[in-house]
Amino acid sequence: MKLKRAGRKGWPRVVSDEELVLHVPGGVMVDYVAGEVVRPLDVGFRGRTLRILDSGYRWLHFAPVSANHAVTVQLDQHLEPVQIYVDICDGHGIDPDGVPFTHDLYLDVLAVCEVQADGTWHVTATEMIDVAELNEALTAGQITPTQFELAWAEAKRVEGQLNANAFPALDVIRAYLRDQRDLNSPP
């Protein structure tokens, strides 16, 4: 099993950035804003290319307490979600710098969504990735059979919630974004 740190501060792709770690109801949030990006990041998703990092993009990472997942929503410069990335894990922690990390179980669930007229996010597609990594970790003894089963059960549960538009972690992230917009709105 590997530790996966949620912080992105000082990322070589980015010349300037800001990162804030907050304790929010139900977990820990890392709010990362990329300033000037020198190497944008594009990823594949179900046969198409998504740009998930460029100048002005924002990543919100939420690690719910007592959950076997952590979620990062990658937003464009207009705060529209580009991708939802869910790390399946066997617990969380906080490093000495105060940044959350996960005990990563390799398997991840990705999703894309459309923003509805009322501002809600409607998941339109999901995909599980890194299945080969999970299998290799089991074969190499990096995870136990119990952790292997946990990864699959949690990934299927998360994917089902995403497809039903009933994933609680997204509600926390949307509420955080809404509160941030309200704080920054002129009176």
UniProtKB/TrEMBL annotation:
<feature type="domain" description="DUF402">
    <location>
        <begin position="45"/>
        <end position="166"/>
    </location>
</feature>
<dbReference type="Pfam" id="PF04167">
    <property type="entry name" value="DUF402"/>
</dbReference>
<dbReference type="InterPro" id="IPR007295">
    <property type="entry name" value="DUF402"/>
</dbReference>
<protein>
    <submittedName>
        <fullName>DUF402 domain-containing protein</fullName>
    </submittedName>
</protein>
<dbReference type="InterPro" id="IPR035930">
    <property type="entry name" value="FomD-like_sf"/>
</dbReference>
